[in-house]
Amino acid sequence: MRAPNGGHLHLDQIGTADAGRTVIAYLASRYPLASESEWLRRIDAGQVLLGERAAEGGERLLPGQRLAWNRPPWIEPEVPLATAILYEDRDLLAVAKPSGLPTLPGGGEFLEHTLLNLVRRRHPEANPMHRLGRCTSGLVLFAPQAASGKPLQAAFQAPGTRKIYRALCSGQPTCDAFEISAPIGEVPYPPLGRLHAYHPEGRPAFSQVTVLERRKDGTLLDVEIRTGRPHQIRIHLAWAGHPLVGDPLYGPGGIPLDGTRALPGDPGYLLHAHRLGLAHPRTGGRLELACQPPPALRASR
Questions:
Q1: CA dist., res. 87 & res. 254, Å (int)
Q2: Residue 104 lies in a domain
Q3: What is the chain's alpha carbon radius of gyration, rounded to the nearest angstrom?
Q4: Position 154 in a domain
Q5: Which residue from 94, 111, 117, 147 has the fewest beta carbons nearer than 10 Å?
Q6: CATH number at residue 15
Q7: Percent helix, strand, coil in the chain (nearest 5)?
Q8: What CATH number is attached to the domain comprising 261?
Q9: How far apart are CA 34 and CA 37, in angstroms?
Q10: Structural domain of residue 231, as residue ranges?
Q11: What is the pTM of this model?
Q12: H-only helix segments in the chain
């Protein structure tokens, strides 16, 4: 039997937007994977603290108050834990993430079974410069120590940085190369409250698409993203009428499929962070990093 993790202490500081809400209303909306009845059970068990005292649930929150709750140890879902170092020096670290492994803790399920936790076993101060969706594989860039964070973030966000993904989309695009500039914002989505999707008043987003191979079951693509909006490639290809093959969440128009209750981390699609080109944050020399795609995302020629 698998051992449970070490549990986790959640600490929240109340902002002005949540002032006046009750403790139970705040917790149920902030952490919706637990039902209101489950939060009431935790409050009754003394597991939620408001300041230094056990919360009762009906208190009205004030700006600056601290709310804490201690989640007991739990058994995390099994995920692939095999990673590889693609590049390493004192300024940056490039790591290969397998599909299915979360980049960061979250979702109410994952704490230790994350890429961040695995990397920190070797580099305790490491922090990722970006994140990949749970079922997206490929290259993730880390600052290996706290002092390297700001210079590396500046290099990662510099205009000359190139981020190229490999994807398998449904259907057959009419052009071999095209750009997608559909804006991305939050839309109502009952399973989560809000979800990133196509929104006409959303933030600008740009993707450059190149067809690599046309197949019976879809089209193999390279997608270079010039912005880094959440789920950008999934949303953009769906907006263009070519959702990723097997995507359980996004459909034509770049919005959630009718009737779906899928979560962003649910499996099914094929997407891989393939190549990253950037200036080295200390030397300024050009770095071209790559992570080999899984077999289903490799071109046959």
A1: 35
A2: no
A3: 21
A4: no
A5: 147
A6: 3.10.290.10
A7: 15, 35, 50
A8: 3.30.2350.10
A9: 8
A10: 160-269
A11: 0.84
A12: 23-30, 36-44, 115-120, 149-157, 232-239
